[in-house]
Write a structure and sequence with these properties.
The chain is built from six helices and 26 strands. The protein is mainly beta and 367 residues long. Strands 1, 2, 3, 4, 5, 6, 7 and 8 form an eight-stranded mixed beta sheet that branches. Strands 10-9-25-26-11 form a five-stranded antiparallel beta sheet. One of its GO terms (biological process) is proteolysis. It holds the Pfam family TAXi_N. It comes from Papaver atlanticum. One of its GO terms (molecular function) is aspartic-type endopeptidase activity.
């Protein structure tokens, strides 16, 4: 399942058709004696879905029907239901989740095909965190070379790792572009190596409509910046890499519709050249992105004897999003802690997830 701090509802791919063959990652509610669909007249449907991206509705069976949309332009739809969840030695009846159709689509269909569902981890009333009553959780997202990721619910002994905390930003009034149940932090600046981008702090502060919040979102792949900030980062990164990277001179090529700074790297080149670091500065903490995390090889795109690589920061304006989003690609091999009791998010320095797994979970050495 995808662990998504940017969304509320947990869901599984479902199939109610006895005659249709489905793969092992599909949940079959007809085989479950504890599965109960939620009617659209239920207060769960009418009241607790108010923070969803679209209002809940009634389907032809008078069941609660939801459509969920995500920051990367993917979506899913299906029905709300109750089910018993078994987590280690806990048996939790009556958990609200989504039983979703297989029509889920996104820009990364290969990853979608591996996905059983999604674990909604934001602060909404129906999120997994809220329904379980957790006051703290943390994770380490592994990189592409290491499949050992860690999710801890509660303290779990993770306090041995030094963290720098930044406070969660909350706005009590409802604003059209402000997600009240997201993990919102205050971005204060961006530095490329030692050069702080010449931007006023006001460009990072949400305006009177709520546009401009900064969300920590493990369910979105890359990081997105509002247009003026993206443009300035693009300009400075280009300047600092002009001697080591060859720009892809194709104005119409925009990776995933939001990333228009791409480069040509020879097929024979096994390592990227030394690159400047990019640091996102928050109130009390920062995340530094370096090396391979700055450029992403676009599969299937070859120009002559060159691969195509694109910078892993996208333009929110091109996505139609009025926010900054810190995606999971730039959270890899960081220890990230969400402390709801103290209303803060903590980031560690660079670590390796397999070491975390070994030390905290006592899993033993990994191969």
């Amino acid at each position: 399942m995808v662990i998504d701090t940017g969304s509320e509802l947990s869901w599984l791919h479902c199939n109610n058709n006895k005659k249709t063959f489905v793969h092992n990652s599909t949940f079959l509610p007809i085989h479950s004696s504890s599965y109960k669909p939620i009617p659209c007249s239920s207060t769960t449907c009418t009241d607790q879905t108010r923070d969803f991206s679209s209002p809940a509705s009634c389907d032809v069976r008078k069941l609660c029907h939801v459509i969920l949309s995500y920051a990367d332009a993917s979506s899913s739809e299906g029905n709300l239901a109750l089910e018993t969840f078994n987590i280690e030695n806990l048996r939790i009846p009556g958990m609200v989740f989504g039983c979703m159709d297989l029509s889920f689509s996104s820009s990364n269909s290969e990853e979608d095909s591996k996905t059983t569902g999604l674990l909604g981890m934001n602060m909404g009333s129906l999120s997994f965190v809220s329904q379980m009553g957790f006051q703290k959780f943390s994770y380490c997202i592994s990189d592409d070379k290491d499949s050992t990721g860690v999710l801890l619910l509660g303290d779990g002994g993770a306090s041995k790792y030094p963290l720098n905390y930044t406070p969660l930003i909350r706005i009590s009034s409802r604003l059209p572009y402000f997600d009240q149940v997201a993990y919102t932090v205050q971005l204060e600046g961006i530095r490329v190596s030692n050069k702080l981008l010449p931007l006023p702090k006001s460009v990072f502060v949400p305006d009177h409509t709520g546009a401009g919040q900064t969300m920590v979102d493990s369910g979105t792949q890359f990081t997105f910046l509002l247009g003026p900030v993206y443009t300035e980062l693009r300009r400075e990164f280009l300047y600092q890499t002009k001697r080591v990277l060859r720009v892809l001179d194709e104005p119409n090529f925009v990776f995933q519709g939001t990333m228009d700074l791409c480069f040509r790297v020879p097929l024979t080149q096994t390592k990227l050249p030394p690159l400047p670091t990019v640091s996102m500065i928050f109130r009390g903490a920062e995340i530094t992105v370096s090396g391979d995390k700055l450029l992403y090889r676009v599969m299937g795109e070859v120009r002559g004897n060159d691969n195509v690589y694109c910078m892993t920061f996208g333009n929110s304006d091109l996505l139609g999003l009025e926010a900054y989003v810190i995606g999971h690609h730039h959270q890899q091999n960081l220890w990230v802690e969400f402390d709801l009791a103290k209303s803060r998010v903590g980031f560690s320095s660079f670590i390796k997830c397999d070491i975390i797994a070994n030390q905290i979970l006592n899993m033993g050495p990994t191969d």
